[in-house]
Structures are given as C-alpha cells and as structure tokens.
Amino acid sequence: MDKPTSHIWVMRGLFVFLAVLVLFLHLLPLNTQPDRWPFPDVLIALIFTWILRRPDYVPTLLIAAVMLMADLLLQRPPGLLAALVVLGAAYLRSAAPGMRDVGFAGEWMSVAVAIAAVFLLNRVVLSLLSVQQAALGPVAIQLVLTVAAYPPLVLLSQSVFGIRRMSAADASTMGARA
C-alpha cells in the first residue's frame, strides 16, 4: 500500500473512532436527572464536517454503518436516520466542489439546510408511521444546537486532525470533480 492510500485508511479509522467516542459519551450516564437541554447531534455535524472537507475519508457505506450503529445503540427506529443522513451527505458531497468559492458562511448555511432537512424528514416519516416522538420544542432546540456545533467541529477537525478542505489540485489528482 502506498502512503496516500494508507493515510486514507488511517483517517477512516480515526473517523470511526471519533464516532464511537461520541456515541460512548452520549450513552455514558453522567447524571441521573433528565437533561434540561437536548444534546446536539454531534455525530451528524461531524459527518457533514468531514464530508465537506475530505469526502474520500468518509465513504457512503461507512456513513451508513456508523449511523445504523447509532440508531441501534440510541434505540431509534433502525435505518431511518441513517438513510436520511446518507441522503444529506450525498447532497453535500455533490455540492462540495462548488462550495470552495462561497466561504464559510455559505458552507454553514448549506449544512444548516441539510441538517434541518434531515430533522424535518425524520419527524415527518415518524409521524406518518404514527411513531411516538419527542415534543417539537426540544427537537427544535436540538436542531439549533446541532447547527451551532458545526463551526467548533470544523475548527477542531482542521486544527487537531488536519482535515482541511480539498484544493482543486488535490481533487484533480484523485480523479474527482474539480
């Protein structure tokens, strides 16, 4: 294996480690009282951060596997949120080459729209299937907190893990669309 290929696999392993860490911290019983504020969905924000920065590090099957694992561990309807996040990631993956010129504010707005669509479609499908769900207020707060968690995750990914946005030269050497 050459160095770029092994580096991609190391970064994919890092992504899986971070996803498992987020799930572990989410499941860890730190307090016996119910939370006053819902926890932001850091896993979705992390996936969208990495998909816009380096789409080769998070292939679609890896996203589906991680989100299905999260659905099962967090006792959500299996596969629904995983499918919606895969759809949102596919949209962002296709929009990523055009976002090189819009700056961070435009990128953040695109991610906010994708996160809102995932949350809204999840709620619509659950209501169509008559599945009991949380009240709208906490879900709206979780949506806002998830969108607000995106900039710190971008900063963390860039400064600590070195996940920078692909340049046009990087994309052309990998055979991706520029």
Automatic annotation (TrEMBL):
Entry annotated with the keyword Transmembrane: yes
Keyword Membrane: yes
Tree of life domain: Bacteria
Organism: Ruegeria haliotis
Transmembrane segments: 9-30, 80-96, 108-129, 135-156
Entry keywords, A to Z: Membrane, Transmembrane, Transmembrane helix
Protein name in UniProt: Rod shape-determining protein MreD
